[in-house]
Design brief:
about 575 residues; alpha/beta; TIM Barrel; eight-stranded parallel β-barrel; 22 helices
């Protein structure tokens, strides 16, 4: 899959905090290059291979010992012990005996013989269920990699950080992590990593913020970008402004809103807005992003009126998802006549826009002008099929090319995504997911269409069960498809704002909830407390895994009680 360069819909990610503290710096992605074999002819003499293997182990031992000596003068005794253990592993008697036998009796090269012997031990440890044995397998792989590096004469240069740097990687072995430590390294963030691994143990002794298990990290923050890292909450977000050497508290980072009871959130929470009057409430909420701009509530829908309404929001410098006019049903368009009585199944959303192309073109021109030089995220409402979504994207791109040809103001980049409110769009999402820069899920309409229950009919209110396992399964299907492709997911509607359903949604995958600004702080505080409760975490996992009605209802009642206790 092609990762789009400007996918900046959501600029806050969450992981598992390992060491507290806050820092701001420039991202450096470390990618360990695998050692390659020498291009020179390899002698057939087994003595040569045996001697070369022993020399490689000695060189690795010298490097480890030098690092160990450095750590011996610091308060890093655990890290030093790990290095000493790796030295012992490299020249393990059984490993060396197997390697020697393979060289002299089977005619294998030294690197191949050593690799086979070490991987045999890796396989043995990986069969163990206990975590400490699985960690030993990772340590052996680390040792093997470093010995092979010396065997092949491969020298990966250690980067030099000239400014405050946030080190990011998919994962790092403890030895590599210690090699990379420099005064200018102010934080470490990893996509993977076990919280009980030796890398985690070493990380906790570095005295800088460390976060692990941050999914989609590389997609959101490539090398060269500037980020704020909060080791207290496990949050990583785009730095508000580049200020080389500035500390977290010297700026107004978007993570700041998570303090005062909002730390340790299970997911990102954004807010909904409807017009210029909401700027004040948005700022007061402290939310990091606008997850839904409901443009159908604008009064002045002329081109100039729309530009005036959009520009103040783009000036805020936060990620904004703008939904195109979602007219139809209960929302009528200004200055237009409705030919038929309003219907939830009638002309609405994207099909309404398709029937009124001039209205759609006017709105797109206004958005392109208002977002000049910024990133614009356009959401298509009520998408029904992949073909319908493709039509909307093609129309928007065609208009954008026209503005480019005429050198008119336009965004730095435009992301497109569907608002999934129709079951058919949810079930078919896998077919058009690769054409999406983000995806949003509107739970209100999706539920009423999924169960054929009019959400406005009070006689059917008892049937409006958003926590039904089949409905949650449909949402999870979309989230899983998106998460597999690193596509940001936003969820809006009443479910996102309700603590119980929001807590369940946060357990379905990597998502952002978009809620009214008036409930933002209260919901964040509630979710934060739930995320710190072992009972809430356990009940959520058990409930989401349960499908049978009676047992599931028992778990749901228990979870309701826990959620109420943490209100």
């Amino acid at each position: 899959m092609i990762i789009r360069k400007y996918r900046e819909v959501l600029l806050m990610l969450h992981g598992k905090p390992l060491h507290p503290g806050r820092a701001t710096g420039k991202v450096h992605w470390y990618v360990e290059t695998a050692p390659v074999g020498t291009a020179k002819p390899i002698p057939q003499n087994p003595d040569w291979h045996w001697e070369r293997l022993n020399d490689a182990i000695k060189q690795a031992e010298v490097a480890w010992q030098a690092l160990s000596d450095t750590l011996a003068h610091a308060d890093t005794s655990v890290s030093n012990d790990i290095l000493q253990a790796q030295i012992a592993m490299a020249k393990d008697i059984d490993v060396m005996a197997q390697a020697k036998q393979a060289i002299y009796e089977k005619g294998k090269a030294g690197d191949e013989a050593y690799t086979d012997a070490m991987l045999a031990f890796v396989a043995w440890f990986e069969k163990m269920e206990e975590g400490q044995f699985k960690q030993r397998a990772q340590d052996i792989k680390d040792v093997l990699q470093r010995v092979l590096t010396h065997y092949h004469g491969f020298n990966q240069k250690t980067p030099v950080f000239h400014e405050n740097t946030v080190l990011m990687a998919s994962d790092l072995h403890p030895g590599v992590l210690l090699d990379l430590m420099q005064p200018r390294c102010v934080a470490v963030v990893l996509e993977q990593g076990s919280l009980n691994s030796h890398t985690a143990i070493v990380s906790q002794q570095l005295g800088i913020p460390v976060i692990m298990q941050v999914t989609h990290l590389h997609t959101a923050f490539p090398s060269g970008s500037y980020v704020d890292v909060d080791g207290d909450t496990g949050c990583v977000c785009k730095a508000v402004a580049r200020q080389d050497g500035a500390t977290y508290n010297q700026k107004r980072p978007s993570i700041e809103s998570l303090e005062s009871g909002h730390a340790n959130l299970p997911c990102t929470v954004a807010v909904n807005v409807m017009g210029v009057n909401d700027i004040t409430t948005f700022k007061a909420s402290g939310a990091p992003a606008i997850g839904l701009f409901r443009t159908e509530f604008l009064n002045d829908v002329t081109r100039g009126g729309q530009v005036a309404a959009y520009q103040p929001f783009f000036a805020l410098g936060v990620p904004i998802i703008v939904r195109l006019f979602d007219y139809g049903a209960d929302k009528s368009a200004p200055h237009t006549e409705q030919a038929n009585p309003p219907s939830q199944l009638g002309l609405r959303g994207l099909r309404w826009l398709r029937d009124h192309p001039s209205v759609m073109n006017t709105q797109l021109h206004a958005l392109y002008e208002a977002a000049g030089g910024k990133i614009l995220n356009i959401e298509f409402p009520m998408v029904r099929t992949p073909e319908e979504y493709a039509w909307g994207v093609s129309m928007a791109k065609k208009l954008l090319k026209t503005r480019q040809a005429r050198n008119l103001p336009r965004p730095k980049h435009v992301n497109f995504g569907p608002l999934i409110e129709v079951p058919s769009a949810a079930w078919a999402f896998e077919r058009y997911a690769d054409a999406c820069d983000f995806v949003a899920i509107g739970t209100n309409d999706l539920h009423q269409y999924f169960f054929a229950v009019d959400r406005y009919d009070p006689q059917l209110s008892a049937l409006y069960d958003v926590l039904d396992s089949s409905f949650l399964g449909l949402i999870k299907k979309v989230i899983d498809t998106a998460n597999q492709r690193a596509i940001p997911v936003t969820i809006c509607g009443q479910m996102a704002a309700d603590p119980l359903s929001a807590w369940l949604l946060s357990g379905l995958g990597t998502v952002t909830l978009s809620v009214p600004p008036t409930v933002y702080k209260k919901l964040c505080a509630h979710l934060s407390r739930l995320n710190g409760s072992s009972d809430a975490l356990d009940l959520r996992a058990r409930l989401l895994a349960s499908t049978e009605s009676a047992p599931r209802q028992i778990k749901l009642d228990a979870l309701r009680k826990v959620v109420a206790e943490h209100a």
